[in-house]
Structure formats: structure tokens, C-alpha cells
Amino acid sequence: MQLAVWTYEGPPHIGAMRIAASMKGVHYVLHAPQGDTYADLLFTMIERGDSRPPVTYTTFQARDLGGDTAEIFKTACREAVERFRPDAVLVGASCTAELIQDNPGGLAAALDLDIPVVALELPSYQKKENWGAAETFYQLVRRFAPPAGGVPETRRPGKTCNILGPTSLGFRHRDDIAEVRGLVEGLDITVNVVAPLGATVEELGRLPEADFNIVLYPEVAGVAADWLKRNHGQPFVAIQPIGTLATDAFVQAVSVAAGLPKDIPAATRSRLPWYSRSVDSTYLTGKRVFIFGDATHAIAAAHVSARELGFTVCGLGTYSREFAREVRATAAEYGLEALICDDHLAVEDAILAAQPELVLGTQMERHVAKRLRIPCAVISAPVHVQDFPARYSPQMGHEGANVLFDSWVHPLMMGLEEHLLHMFRDDFEFNDAAQPSHISHPAPAAEAMPVAPSLIEVAAPVWADDAERELRKIPFFVRGKARRNTEQFAADRGLATITIEALYDAKAHFSR
pLDDT, tens digit, for every residue of 388-398? Predict the structure, then answer.
């Protein structure tokens, strides 16, 4: 286990907590010490939920370790059931409580409760949050949608489906559901159950009634969908409709699963294709983009970046080790070696090495990009409170494609402002040396930017006067990066003086 200031995933009991908080009528009794009680923080402050998460802690203290902590768990479990009267209760231990081996599942079974008890064994020191969410959802599906016995028959295509995978604390999951439901119902296909987000225990029991499943987030629903296929004969569609091309492929795959004609035209409402064609290629074509996040969103972002926006993918990675094979295969399509890592410092080093012009990542990459003054958009959990907007802001479907364009491309575009800055760069009021007219203190110099340690160690070459004048023609918001790149280029080649020729050679080098 590695101690870190930031972490991409919590321990697996956080994943179980997300499933409990997603569903209705499910309560989670967690054997945990004082200090591990942070469910309220996660679901009310970050996700801004309008109700407390259905989690009860035993909250034992150090002095209790000399006594009977098992009795503390049984008391907490019994009182939680009596107070909240859930339809089912999950029981498990946090990473710290796991060490004292009290066996919450056995203790809960001994209480002889009058509601179903699902015991969770989540190895906190081997697995992480998304695995815990997937395992919890799988255990719930197994418990409440058991097979009838025998070998399931192969199902014929039908027009009823389940949508599986969205959870609490998921990145834009609540909006994605609305978009995907609209796509499916627009094909005259009935949505049977959406789970786990918003589902009840009774609805889990109705999962086998659907003709097929749609897996929106394999990190959460992949294992359960495989089990439903083996035990109930339900096929599933595992294309995530992120971007225009993937949305079209999703519609076709769902149509086939429902027995509809394969050539159903996609009733697109996305402006992304037209926007991509209409925008000046200076802003899009060949822009270097570094992508990091969960596997679903990282893979989708790579495809949208390269195939729909004309970006050059210069880095791709994920913290989802369970999906390393899929991410490596996608990276190979773009001539890259995938970064499979959960160390945010290693990801920062990879960003510095890739020299991107845009970063698509988690809230951690947003902090890195902000320090480096690189445009950035968040595409994946873990996320900050600002990534749960009040507005409708899906990532999937036609409207999701519009959102992607806005959030990814606009940081790269200065549009009219850039042209005005170029036109008036010598004006007495608008030139770089002029003081801002609307504030009383001078703005920080654009060149005073954090730089990579490797750049600090190299003595900066001397700039020739004509090269310095040429550098000042570059807009201020990218001039610092141009200066650093050129100085690095000159240092690598042993140039003591940077001439105009060296400046343009560096530009050509870093544009490749």
C-alpha cells in the first residue's frame, strides 16, 4: 500500500458504499473505527445529494479493541435494521476493521434478521473502489435474481432491456441515464430496469425479465452482465455511446439486439460533426492531447479525439488495472504505450514528457494542468464538486457529444480574442508591456510559469535580439511554453545563442 496525498480510487468498501447509496431500500452496515466515517462528506458535499447516505458505522475506538468489538457490530446492525427498516442490508468491514477479523457476515447471520443480509468480503489491501462496486452489484444481482435452474435457453431478440452500471459518485452518470434512455426509447424499446442507480431490491429481481442488457460502465456492471448472460441467457451490448461515432454504433448494436433492422438511421441531434468541420483547423487539427482516467472514459476520449476532432493522441493511460488490456490495445492503435498507473506523480511526469496542448483527465490532472498552464477538461472520476453541475451535462449520446465539444475544444480556442491581440499587439494600451486597465496591480509575467525540473537544471541559452522580438509576436498565453520548448531544443543541441532560425527549427520539431 502506498501513502499518497491524492488517490484515484478509495478502498473497496467505498465502492460498496456507492452501490448502497445508489439504490433504494438498501442499507450498509460497515464495521469501521472512529475516523473512517466519511460517507456524509462524499455524498452530500461532493455529489451534493439531498439525503444522507444509507450507511451505519460501528465506530469502535482504540479502547474497544481490548473488549468485544463483535458485540459492538451486532448492536449497530440490529439498531440500524430497526431504525431504517431497509429491504436488504449489506454488511462488511473497512480496511482497518478487516485486520481484527470479526467476520461481519457471520455476526449478522447470527442475528437472525427478518430481511435479506448480503455479506461482502472485500479485500481492502488487494483491491480498490471500482472493483468493490462491481463485486457488490454482482452479489446483489446473484442474491435477488437467482437462476431458475438448468441451462438457460438462448434468447431471441426482443424489445425490452435493462440499463446497467450507473452509480452515485459516477462522472455524469445521472445525466447519461436520461440521454441513453431517450436513445433506447426512441427505437421503441422498453427499459425494464436501470440499476444500480435508483433501483430497488424488487427491481433487481425483475432483471431476468428483459431480453438483453446494456452495459454503460463495465467497471461496475461488467461482472454482473456476464453472470446474467451465463445464468439467464441475456446477451448484452457493451458499446458506450460517447461521441457521435460511438453513439451511432450503439444505436445499431441495440437495434440488432432488439431484432430491429440493422440500417436504422441515427436521428442525430449532435452539432459536434458540423462544429468540427467548421472550426479553423488551427485550433483542432494535430493538437496534442494527453488522456488519463477510468478505462471507459479514457478509451472513448481517445477515439473521439482522434476520429472526430482531429487531435493527435500523445498519451493515454488509466488507473483501472482490471481493464489494462483494453487500454493497451487502444493505445497501440495510436502508436503509444499505455500508462497503467495509480500514482498521480507518475502521471504528472508523463504529462511533462508528452508536452501536450490539452489534457483530458480527472480532477488531479486538472490541478497538474493548471500549474503548467495547459488547457484541461475533466472526463472521468474521481471528480470535484464542480463536476456535478446543476445543469444537464451528459457525456453520452447526441447531447453528450455537444458537451464534449464545448468542454474539450473551447479551452483551446481564443477565437476573435486571439486575432484582436495579434492586430493590436503594438497598441499603447494593449501591448504586452501595458498595465491592465481594470486592476491596480500588474499582472504576472507569462514567462513566470512552473517548469519541469529537467528544464531548470539546464542553463538557459542567450536569446538574440531578433529572436526575442520574434518571440514577442507569439500570443502571451502560449509564449511561455514556446520559450521553454525553444530553450530546451537549444540546450539539447548545445546552442549557446538562440537565433530566429533556431526558434523556427524548435517550432517545427515540437509540431511533429
Answer: 888 899 999 99
